[in-house]
Amino acid sequence: AQSVTQLDSHVSVSEGTPVLLRCNYSSSYSPSLFWYVQHPNKGLQLLLKYTSAATLVKGINGFEAEFKKSETSFHLTKPSAHMSDAAEYFCVVSSFSNDYKLSFGAGTTVTVRA
Amino acid sequence: DTGVSQNPRHKITKRGQNVTFRCDPISEHNRLYWYRQTLGQGPEFLTYFQNEAQLEKSRLLSDRFSAERPKGSFSTLEIQRTEQGDSAMYLCASRQDRDVLGYTFGSGTRLTVV
To answer: Which residues contact B74 (CB under 8 A, 6 or more apart)?
Structure first.
């Protein structure tokens, strides 16, 4: 079985301040983990993915995430938020045990204040 | 390569009517997935195909839902006797067998049942 829990349903930050989106995962086998972003009325866009290579993963638009097995976490961060970062973010898990189907978290809505 | 294409983009239907959505995956992708996303939630797995074979149907998929991929290329998702609870975004994704993490998502079909 595999699942993810996104610990915050909504995060509000000021432009130029750091962003932290928290995700915990559960997986019976070695997981692959992803972060996707969805802007209003747009499709899902892949930000980054972890595949058991480096534990610190860099993605697009200045985002990065760190895989911590001991904490079963895969938190997403960005040093400085931009207005264009306002969107819905999804943490996703996949593994061999589930034929690599994707299991999504409930999402975190990010609001950026000017 | 034009990505994953879904049609229509929007569909408004009356309760009790049947609707059909189409997904055209990336041409060399032999795996095709359907997800459903309701307001404020992450996408939920519905069903998936390897070529023309339907490998799994989620328990979320009632008997009113049927999906096909007759020639291993495009896929259709039909909902019979629609209910208001079927209102959601229906997402299609595809990938190659050997690229277990290389998912590409379409922009989705938004269904509104009135």
So the answer is: B22, B23, B24, B25
